Amino acid sequence: MTSDTRDSTAFALDGDTPAFYRRLGPGLYAPTVHVQGAWRDDEQHMAPVSGILAHEIDLHEPREGMQLARISFDILGMIPARPSRVEVRTTRPGRTIELVEATLVVDDRPVVRAHAWRLAAHDSEPVAGVELEAIPAPDVMQPWTGADTWEGGYIEGLEFRVDPERRPGRTRAWIRALNPLLDGETCSPTADLVRLADTANGIAVRVSPREWMFPNVDLSVHLFREPVRGWIGFDTRVTMGPTGLGLTSTTLHDERGPVGRAEQILTVRRLPPS
Q1: How far apart (Å, rounded) are the C-alpha atoms in residues 98 and 121?
Q2: What is the DSSP letter of 123?
Q3: Of 24, 50, 30, 16, which Cα lies nearest the Cα of 179?
Q4: What is the C-alpha radius of gyration for the chain, rounded to an integer number of angstroms?
Q5: Which of 31, 105, 119, 169 could form a disulfide with 238 if both were Cys (CB 3.0 to 4.6 A apart)?
Q6: What ranges make up the beta strands (E) of the chain?
């Protein structure tokens, strides 16, 4: 770890940069207040972390005609809101199918590991078909203030439209970020979608996050086409079992229609007394 990412003094989150991250160097990023987590104010929310990992995967050995089909994340612990380094390598090279691994490291400790399958584009238009149902457009849904349910700078930087018939454990919603992923750089539409996907676990909560904890320990995003930039739609169901396990399942949409799926496994437990 370079000296830029290990410092015995407290790291103050940048409140002035209108983006989730500032680049400090190759693969090295400073989080801003817009990544601040919902459970603790000294952690990064997993959603922008997912986005910066996807962006680094995009930058790693890019080849014409390759597309991200699946990206999965394992969350190895609390993600400190401190300068972060992304390490990327190709673990399964191939001409038409390849697997790329990316790891977010903070203070010499791996905190999130991502695996991404990149597949070659082929003409499959003659057999194309989608069985996933569309959801109503953003302009026919109601505004919702996420900060009424959740704390943290990440949630404050989002705009929501939600189904008026939403209920605990089930909702349809549209989300867009008010700030870009990275200051001064343009990211792919895929990275822009991935940076919001983890938000699914907070829009259809079954119980109050002030009484229960239900963080996800993973996130898996499957895409069957490249998304377009703009609002991202969530058709989300939350299931909680009786022994501390839960599952958040989402059909992801862009403004053209369904684009893929996201799954998150949860650890469900009562909040300890303060």
Answers
A1: 13
A2: -
A3: 16
A4: 18
A5: 169
A6: 21-25, 28-31, 66-75, 84-92, 97-106, 109-120, 142-144, 158-162, 170-177, 212-213, 218-223, 232-240, 245-254, 257-267, 269-270
Instruction: Please choose, from the candidates 89, 100, 117, 116, the residue with its C-alpha nearest in 3D space to the C-alpha of residue 27.
Output: 89
Residue 274: DSSP 8-state: -
Q: Which two tokens stand for residue 36?
A: 């601040």
Predicted pLDDT of residue 260: 98
d(C-alpha 255, C-alpha 228), whole Å: 7
The whole-model pTM stands at: 0.94
| Number of other CB atoms surrounding residue 69 within 10 Å | 19
Extended beta strands in 121-231, E state: 142-144, 158-162, 170-177, 212-213, 218-223
Q: What pLDDT, on a 0 to 100 scale, did the predictor assign at position 241?
A: 98
Cα–chain center distance at 182: 14
Distance CA 106, CA 265 (A): 23
Helix pair angle (189-197, 46-59), 10° resolution: 150
Give the phi and the psi of residue 30 in degrees, each rounded to 5: -105, 120
Residue 154: strand, helix, or coil: helix
* Positions of the chain with pLDDT lower than 50, given as ranges: 1-9
Query: Could you give the count of Cα atoms lying within 13 Å of 69 in the half-sphere of its Cβ?
Result: 13
Residue 228 burial (CB < 10 Å; 0-12/13-18/19+)? middle
H/E stretch holding 192 reads helix 189-197
